[in-house]
Amino acid sequence: MPSQFTAPHLRPTLTFQLYRCLAAVLVPLAYRKIARKLEDAGVTKSRQRERLGYASLPRPDGKLIWCHAASVGESLSALTLINVMGERHPDAQFLLTSGTATSAQIVANRLPPRCLHQFAPLDSGSAMRRFLKHWQPDLACFIESELWPQMVVRTAAICPVALLNARISKGSLRNWGRFAQTARLLLDRFALIRTQDQATLDGILSLGAPPERCARGKNLKSAAEPLPVPQDALEALRAQIGPRPVWIAASTHAGEERVVLEAHRKLLEQTPDLMLVLVPRHPERAPDIQQMIANTGLSHSCRSRKEPPRGQVYLADTLGEMGLFYSLSPLVFLGGSLSPVGGHNPYEPAHAGAAVIHGPLYANFAEDYPALHAAGGAVEVQDDTTLAQALQYLLETPEDLQRRATAAHQFAQGQMQGLDQMISELSALLKPR
Which of 260, 269, 370, 384 is most exposed, with the fewest beta carbons within 10 Å of its own? Predict the structure, then answer.
């Protein structure tokens, strides 16, 4: 276990220096596009400027632990870490950064005590200098993060940096292998590296990561607490749906809705009153999905228009309500697994007591889905035909559905333990103030 922060010693490479110069030119141009995207999502001007390192909030007094997460899934994992660290360090303050408007909206109402959110600074020297000068973190934890060179190097110059839940694809490893010295430079800046799978651990060691600082760690996504479920909203939805059977298609991506809708059309032949609750990963795609539903010949209602769940499809095109929708049915198809996205977190529907139906493309959870299968809580499908067959079987055999749903829930509950060692390792890195 690391007990003291030691400043890294590898000198910046020529590639890193060239990257710094290129970032100084390109980041201001990239910011214009990023700011427009944030503005379209309703983010204020002052908050948009957080991407340039301008803080919109004062730094709280005392120790500050900075957790950076790229997007939604990583942000939710960071909340788990912050909750547990907050219990261990009641005198510490926390800063959570992320890059997308969606992640900011989802975590806004779930921030733990003593925790602030800001948009992450872009990877330029000026943005990082402003950010670090204002926030002065005592410890930085990057969650499953892309390796942004200046963020890593400049942060490591002032405080210990840990890379947690690391997962690097084979393609990224190959790319970093072309710049082996720079990869080694960045990996050397981490005082602690914990990967979520063996393949990533082997890969970063092959790139020259210090082996004494690296190990497989607890997957923070598996240890996450159940998603919040507003009981009033759940009871209202159940009352509106009534006795109709329901299944959920959650976090779907482009291409998957056609599969889901075709499967639902087939299911209606046997179960005419069946309702599909369709929850796209990106609600802004709702107009295209509504047209798709109409083209399929199915009737639908839309949650963003505050319509009650009526018709054959209920389009749940809102953010931050996934726990509510998972609680409506023990039958959940989890998207991102029939398209080359890599799968989404199966622990979320499992915590809600749902059997997890999914496709074969789950590289982001390469070890989790097989384990969930072994526990009896998951079913794999390949297309609309096998999806319809799996759903029809479970609708007709409620005892097997209940067995699978219970197995999934018990499996998820069993994964919530085991963060103690990681928290102790991080606590040992925390600089005294």
Answer: 269
